């Protein structure tokens, strides 16, 4: 509508005026992803967002995603101004892994290599030996296991269990989960599959093991998009945030994409198939992040001591991924 068009026009002007670029996650709303594309920004998973932000010449990055993504951008690019549509957009994995408790867990097992998912605070990253995202986690754990390393894994227990099963690595697990992926239900998925027997099931490994066990392809957001593109099936049942349908449909035009079933019904379930924190990244909030003179409600800062420490395991991941 007209108001949305106004916001888009304003945002486009402000991006140019402020030498800023919009970096959006696959789980943000389709109009936000479209705007990032139109304005020369990036739409991707958290690994690619980190790399794009670091390498882009703009002075300012607007990170449409959740807080850990803004923090990662600041850790990698301290000289840039990192703005977020809202600083309230967090993640249940980050919230469920407070630094004091996690650090005590690590201290209790000093002979273990600490591997943390990118969905964590800067302080948790600073305590880790490795940071991983879901698109590189399997390879990095495989590598560590081949060197005989014992691993502490945090915070996603479902992703951790999946990786332990795939690699046979010895992993001590932090018990966190993603409130979105944890809602996918195997029984309902079995019913749906019987209605669409020709459909391939695509699952993000933050989902419960019973759902992962039914998958034809398991992977990160970017890997699931590739699967929809490359697999011969005409129909896909997709167990991850519905925001992914925007890019998945572009990659696989003409194919039918169906949302995997969740436990709750739409009226009561606030986290079914769409992350409530990703959903906070609206046009109005993006416009505000660029135009507000009061930057304290939008700008990301990371304590310099933590930043320097967190940069080490993050750089290890980026170098490994090359
Ligand atoms: O669930 C998330 O937040 C994901 C998949 C992040 C990422 O790695 O892109
Ligand atoms: Fe965190 Fe899950 Fe939201 Fe991703 S989808 S940001 S893991 S709560």
Automatic annotation (TrEMBL):
The keyword tRNA-binding does not apply. Its EC number is 2.5.1.72. Keywords: 4Fe-4S, Cytoplasm, Iron, Iron-sulfur, Metal-binding, Pyridine nucleotide biosynthesis, Transferase. Pathway: Cofactor biosynthesis; NAD(+) biosynthesis; quinolinate from iminoaspartate: step 1/1. Transmembrane segments: none annotated. [4Fe-4S] cluster binds at residues 91, 178, 275. Binds 1 [4Fe-4S] cluster per subunit. It is an enzyme of class 2 (transferase). Gene3D superfamilies: NadA-like. Belongs to the quinolinate synthase family. Type 1 subfamily. This is Quinolinate synthase. The gene is nadA.
């Amino acid at each position: 509508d007209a108001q949305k068009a106004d916001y888009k026009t304003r945002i486009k002007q402000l991006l140019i005026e402020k030498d800023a670029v919009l970096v959006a996650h696959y789980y943000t709303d389709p109009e936000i992803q479209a705007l990032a594309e139109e304005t020369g920004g990036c739409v991707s998973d958290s690994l690619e967002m980190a790399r794009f932000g670091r390498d882009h010449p703009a002075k300012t990055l607007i990170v449409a995603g959740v807080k850990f993504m803004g923090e990662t951008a600041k850790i990698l690019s301290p000289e840039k101004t990192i703005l977020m549509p809202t600083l309230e957009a967090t993640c249940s994995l980050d919230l469920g892994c407070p630094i004091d408790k996690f650090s005590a867990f690590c201290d209790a097992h000093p002979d273990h290599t600490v591997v943390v998912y990118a969905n964590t605070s800067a302080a948790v990253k600073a305590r880790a030996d490795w940071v991983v995202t879901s698109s590189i986690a399997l390879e990095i754990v495989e590598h560590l296991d081949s060197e005989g390393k014992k691993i502490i894994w945090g915070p996603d227990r479902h992703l951790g269990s999946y990786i332990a099963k795939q690699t046979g690595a010895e992993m001590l697990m932090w018990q966190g989960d993603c409130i979105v992926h944890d809602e996918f239900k195997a029984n309902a998925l079995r019913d749906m599959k019987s209605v669409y027997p020709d459909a391939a099931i695509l699952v993000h490994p933050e989902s419960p093991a019973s759902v992962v066990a039914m998958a034809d392809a398991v992977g990160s957001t970017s890997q699931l998009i590739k699967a929809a593109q490359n697999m011969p099936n005409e129909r896909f049942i997709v167990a991850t945030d519905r925001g992914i349908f925007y890019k998945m449909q572009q990659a696989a035009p003409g194919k039918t994409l169906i949302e995997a079933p969740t436990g709750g019904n739409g009226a009561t379930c606030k986290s079914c198939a769409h992350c409530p924190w990703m959903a906070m990244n609206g046009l109005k909030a993006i416009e505000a992040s660029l135009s507000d003179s009061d930057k304290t409600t939008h700008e990301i800062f990371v304590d310099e001591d933590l930043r320097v420490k967190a940069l080490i395991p993050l750089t290890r991941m980026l170098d490994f991924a090359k």
